[in-house]
Amino acid sequence: MKPLHITINGSRYDFLVGEHEMLSVVLRERAGLTGTKIGCSQGSCGACTVLVDNEAVLSCITPALRCENSNVTTIEGLASCGTLHGLQEKFVKNGAIQCGFCTPGMVMTALDFVSNNHSPSPEGIKEALSGNVCRCTGYKKIINAVAEYAMEKRGEEKEKEKEKEKEKENTVGKPRPYIEAAKKAMGAAAYADDYKIANALHVKFVRSIYPHARIENIETGEAMKMAGVRYIATGRELPVKFGVLPISQDETAMAIEKVRYAGEIVAAVAADTAELAAEACTHVKVKYAPLREYLTIDDSLNDIGKDEKIHEHVKFNNNVHKKAELRFGDQQQGLSESEVVSSMSFEMEGVSHGFTEPHAATAWWDENGLTIITATQVTHYLHRTLSKTLGVPLSRVRVIKPYVGGGFGGKSDPFPHEIIISHIARQTGRPVRVCLSREEVFLTNHGRHPSRMTIKLGASGDGLLKVLDADIAIDGGAYSSFGVVTSYYNGVLLQAPYKLDNFGFRTFRVYTNKPQCGAMRGHGAVNSRFAVESLIDDIAHRIKMDPVELREKNLLDSHTLTVGQYRITSNGSRESVRKVAEQSGWKNRHGKMEYGHGLGIACGFFISGSALPIIRNELPQSCVHLKVDFDGRVLVTSGANDIGQGSDTMLAIIVGEVLGVSLENIFVMAADTLLTPVDLGSYSSRVTFMAGNAAKNAADNLRLEIADAVSKRKNIAVQELNFSDNRVFSNDKSVDLSWNESIDILTAGRGAVSVSGKYISPRLGGDFKGSGAGLSPSYSFGACAAEVKVNPETGHVTLLNVWGAHDCGKALNPLAVEGQLEGSWHMGMGQALSEEMKYHKGLLLNNSFLEYKIPTSLDTPDIRTNIIETIDPEGPFGAKECGEGALHPVIPAIANAVYDAAGVRVTKLPIRAEHVLALIKSKKKIAV
Amino acid sequence: MKEVKKKYLQPSSVSEAISMARQYSGTSRYLAGGTDVVVNKFMGNDPAECLIDISKIIELRSISENESHLRIGSMVRLSELEQNTVVKDNFPALCSAARAVASPVIRKTATIGGNVLCENRCNFYNQGEWWREAAGYCLKCDGDICIATGGKKNCFSKFVSDTAPVFISLNAMAETEGPGGKTIVPLEEIYTGNGLNPRNFPENSMLCAILLPLKENKINLFRKLRPRLAVDFTSLTVALSVNREGDIKIVLGGVDPGPVIIEGKFAGSKEEIIKNAVKKARIVNNDYYPREYRKEMIGVFLTEMFGEIENNYR
User: Fold this and answer.
1) Which of residues 394-453 of A touch B (CB under 8 A)?
2) Gap between the Cα atoms of A373 and A363, Å rounded
3) Which residues of A are less than 8 Å from B289 in CB distance?
4) What 3 state SS string does A69-130 have?
5) Distance from CA of A422 to the nearest CA of B (A)
6) Helices B291-313, B270-280: crossing angle, 10 deg rounding
7) pLDDT tens digits, A220-273
8) Residues in chain B with pLDDT < 50?
């Protein structure tokens, strides 16, 4: 240890620090300034950026001792007395903040850049931010925020601001930043690893080095002898199986008899410091007896002879986890009616959510039982899982979700680390912390399934789709996660947005000895959508019909049923495809540009919440409580998980709209299983529709209570009362009360009033087995157009433009909706062009932000965002989902653009340069 | 074995640094910007217990010019090099190379010396301790097999400096100082082409400066193959220079354990040069892009660069 004298945000500190300790650790753990985030510890994500002597540095790779006598500015040093710095203000105002985890680093990087570049170009800004990963925004709003700040600093553009102020307050449809945006901008929002519970132990894991092996022995004695090591847990202590779906609970917190993937947790060491725990892990000796490894879909589909299966419970002598098959209409008939049939085989690599905040949690026990603060999308399912695996009553488990740095489906399962630290906390009587490394986050996976599929699409000569048949196999990895649902979604979600009378699919999901796959943004249907939209493009070319026209011809109408009995209500697919066609100059440019330059288009659709709960029971899918007390403040409590997508703000907007009060009077408390009523969680794009409807229902109930009280006191009919602009008034103004006056009347002689609201999905769907898959009270629709350049010499695809349109029913908060859409399209671009999980003998090769290629700001083209509104009859104020469905069309739009540019049909994801080049060459050969 | 404790030293002069290195000989490493070394340490790939941080040594931080040479101190940061007007005017390829490194924030910390000397990379080596144990340690981490090739003799970790190929193509010299005093050698001579020990440096000596001849060069070009426009290390770097006599010097990076140097006459056969370059590069499958593709891209890049010269400089 050495002394370090350092000034941080103007305050002088003297610390004793480790010789090789990094500045990020000093800031977070010693100075308690947790605004600086650690996303990778390897200098590849930028979340830890701070200023040292006014220069941006990555604090996670800056030795603290280098900063002796330096002046460090962190995100906490920018705002003064709660007033945001101008740049922070721009981030807030422009909606550049979603999950907020990248925000501190992004702001510090941008600040350093703008102070050296007074008139930056958009390209300059993109380059400056290119080392900072943002997974939520697609960078567009961040770049806008920086540009606006630079402009304002130069003294330009102030008038617009004033204009905006005139806009009406608190109405649905007003673009507004998240209610917590300022807190995130200041680095004051606490994420899971920012909670420093006193006296906490740190946990690190011993992970399997074999993909498939029997555990013969685990020797913990030597590690246990080390000073500061307090507990070592192994699998036998937690034998109860769990899994997010009740029908496929096949995982234990740690491997017991055998390991099923390289990286699986075998033991957990709790020690006084994280370093010590990590060191002790190297002294835990595990003896393995390797088993035959199944690493590919074929390995697991075929009969495995005398070798050992991955899971005992699998029905046949292979590793097939699930076979899902449904058929509607008459596919043979459909084929015979088809004049053109396009059939292709596709392969898609697995991809990862890439959220910037690593999994982290802290757990402790007290007189109320277990409390765990954890980065989760599903407090409710975790609540149930902890109760089950730890053998404690539901009433003794409290799950608290702090601010979460992105999820995208990657935090929508209960996780082993959450169970393990809860267990160790019970065994030791001390709080226990864990924070996964970026490598461990990749190993935890639950990302999109590697897939391969052969799909056949038939159409009449005039372009009417007659039949679709899909034969699909997906690689689930070692455990089931959401896999049963994924298996169905790959197929069933092909029955829209086009009318198809004859349709069938079969999906095999196999277990393999790799980290498990699960739900990821656009769950289940992203890959098969890419395939089908490619086939549609092919058919259009073969019958010489414009791909836009062909799509329009087949799109489902609103208020109709699909062949599998999905009830389509509002449907903006036509407007969406027309919009992007028009903006991209489709008519004049598609098929008409020089070789190497192309335009592509595609459509998509998605569920707006699953109509069926995962665990069948009679509870509502969402319940929201409102409480109003003498001070006029409305407390909204909801179990819905805001993971950066803005659901807290959505709830506040809905409640504010119904009650006619501004958002300052509304306080949202969410996702704490002690304090908030059950909501099933943030998955399947259900929150706006379901929690939103529950909030609306609750607000309607509260409004009724208020109206009732005012009506009695003022002798006026309830129907005459209006709620607007923080007032309760009658049309003739004979009653004209301020909000607080009306609350005085409500609470008189009664005190605080609490009401409840709920959402239960209507009964939907057919009565056949599997009819529940993909059922939703509403569906979203959308389209994308993409423009690419393909270099015929290198095969490299450059994405020049993306135009997107998405029918979200009604944009409750257009700024947030745009953010969701742009983030979806950005994530789709990544899967289309650069992202894939690559394995070497079952070991994940690219387990870092350096090697897992999320598009940087420089790789992200201009995005044109269009919100299509159709006012859904059952959505809250007409709203439906916008967070996942938008991703579907972007990948095929890019692939179809490659076809338009170079005449080659890409059937593999990601679209790799060497594949495109090979296709171009083989086409040339055929031409010769 | 005597136990070595972690150390962090901050010398203020070259001679002080060298004497510290001698004191901790065998367990020390000079730390320039640290953007490479610190990450390698985090991954468990750099066992050095004593870090000698040379970032405070003022004498290493300047760019100066005499009649024949530009002298770039090894601790000049990449962001400073990008902005230097002499470099911009005379060596646009060097500017491009500096700008092609990592990200702008990293370039504010990363130095020329660090980039020129950065450690070789390989998909199977740049992994955490757990991963390398699971894969079976490779040659470069004291194992007995190259995972990329299955061979037992040679390590094919890639030489990945973006700036060094340009320097070498411009006949730059490396000025080093060690316990034995100062030496000046052609930069290419410090690379061994051996993936296990890619640099040939007298023990405890350090790179003090790069000397860049000012008058010889006429044209210099730079290309880098990588999946993204920022952050990524190179999958293939091509630096090309043509001097006043029409001699071409091509240096490839990212495709061999060391820089691959091909010399020829601009007037001569381009096909021959390309064939030669492809033949000399010992490419293996240890990168984002497959071996065959990178091989092919050598020719594509060179053809493009030759074309650019024909179009713009003739």
Assistant:
1) 437, 439
2) 6
3) 913-914
4) CCEEECHHHCCECCECCHHHHHHHHCCCCCCCCCHHHHHHHHHHHHHHCCCCCHHHHHHHCC
5) 25
6) 150
7) 999 999 999 999 999 999 999 999 999 999 999 999 999 999 999 999 999 999
8) 1-3
